[in-house]
Amino acid sequence: xxxxxxxxARSHREPSLQLIxxxxxxxLVVDIGHLEPEDHARVTFLVPFVGxxxxxxxxxxxxxxxxxxxxxxxxxECWPLHPALVAELAMVERWAAAVEANVVxxxxxxxxxxxxxSRHVMFVTVPMVQEVARGVARSRCLHRLSPxxxxxx
Length: 153
Description:
By secondary structure, this protein is mainly α.
């Protein structure tokens, strides 16, 4: 009888996993010069990840003017001006890196880590982005891309 290799043994032979491929062409539309240096560095670091996140989950935020009657809004360009959203995206980026590196803490191994990460993204992060997008649409923040806090923050 042949024994099947366990998940740990498989993970060392498989090619590396990349949950959210970064978008090196992603750029900020808002001015973040007024942010504290630590916040500025965090946002700047996140830009490629957020670009990849936007692309990976694009079905959740249509292009401008598409299907607003369905309650879905475009990805908020002013995301760096929403501290809670920046913190959430930073946490998701770190968690994705841990899953990719197979160093997720807790029980269940890499498959369990991916499952928890995926559920969190779908049931926490995506709805959070959508809520910010709805607030932005109500306040027309996208049309005032000047420094300072977003009115919907």
